[in-house]
Amino acid sequence: MNLNKLEAFILVVEKKSFSEAAAALKSSQPTTSLKIKSLEEEIGMELLERGTSGVQPTAAGKLVYHAAKELTRRWRQLEDELHGFQDTLTGTLTIGASTIPGTYLVPGWVKTFRSLYPKVDVIIEIGDSKKILDKLLDHQIDVGIIGLEQDSNKLTFRPIASDSLVLITPNGHPMVHANDPEFSQIKQYDFVVREKGSGTRKVMEDYLSIHGYLLSDLHSVISIGSTEAVIAAVEAGLGISFISKLAAIPAAKAGRIQIIEKFDPFLRNFYFTSLTDTEKRPIIKEFTELLLKG
What we know:
The protein is α/β, with parallel strands linked by helices. Among the domains are: about 1-85, Winged helix-like DNA-binding domain superfamily/Winged helix DNA-binding domain (Arc Repressor Mutant, subunit A), CATH 1.10.10.10; about 165-265, D-Maltodextrin-Binding Protein, domain 2 (3-Layer(aba) Sandwich), CATH 3.40.190. The chain has twelve helices and eleven strands. Strands 3, 4, 5, 6, 9, 10 and 11 form a seven-stranded mixed beta sheet that branches. Strands 1-2 form a two-stranded antiparallel ribbon. Helix 9 (about 200-210) links the parallel strand 7 (about 190-195) and strand 8 (about 220-225). It starts with a helix and ends with a helix.
C-alpha cells in the first residue's frame, strides 16, 4: 500500500473532482487518475463512480476513505514525533482560521514561527468558524484559530487574542453626524451581516441581545460571506454593519467607511483550538507554546 495513492484518493473523495485533487497535489490529472486506478487494482474493487454531483465513493470506497484518513493521520503523527528527535522541526502545519484572525493575526504568528522553524511548511485555510471546527474534527487541518468556543471533550480551546465589534456606516451617513445617537436608531437603517456559521455574526447577535434586540428586528438584512465583502457593501451604501475593529480600522483609514465610536465596544475573544489527542505532536506543541507566550 502506497501513502501517495491514499492521499490522492482522499483528496478526490473530498473535492469530488480529479482535477481539483490534482491541483491540490500539484500534480497532473492523468497522474492522479493512474494512482486511483492502481489503488483500485491493488484492492481489487471499484472505489469511485462519477455522478451528477461529481465523483462519489462506492460503498467499498467509503470504507477505504475512512481507513485511509486514519492511516495518513497516524503516519503524519509518527513523522512529527520522529522529527521531534532532530535539532530542527520539519514537516507541515495546516492552520484553519476564521476570516478575521486569518487575515489580520495569523500571518504575523506564522512569520514568527517560521523564523524559529524554517523547515516547517505552513498551510493556512480560511473559512467560517463552523467549517474550521468541522475540518479539525475530521483531521483535515492540524489546529484552528476561530471566534467561537464550544463544549467538546475532543477539542481544547484557549483564548489567544481579543477584538471588539464596532458599528460602520457609509461616508456621510446620518449616524455620523448625530451628537448623541441612541442604540435603537440602528433599526431605521438597512443592515449588512456575515453569513450563518460566522463567528462575527454570532458575536453580533450576542451584542444585539444585550440591548434587547434580535437579528430579525433589524431592517432589510443582507447576508454576505466575508468581512471584506461586508465592508464593500457598506461602502457602496447597501447598509450599516457591526464588524471587527481589526478589519474596520484599515478601511476607515483608507476613507472607505466611517466608524461610529459613540456606542460601547463589544469585546470578543479569538480561540486557539486543537484536538486533545494531537496536542503533544511536536509541531503542534511548539506552535501552541509560541501563541500562548505571545
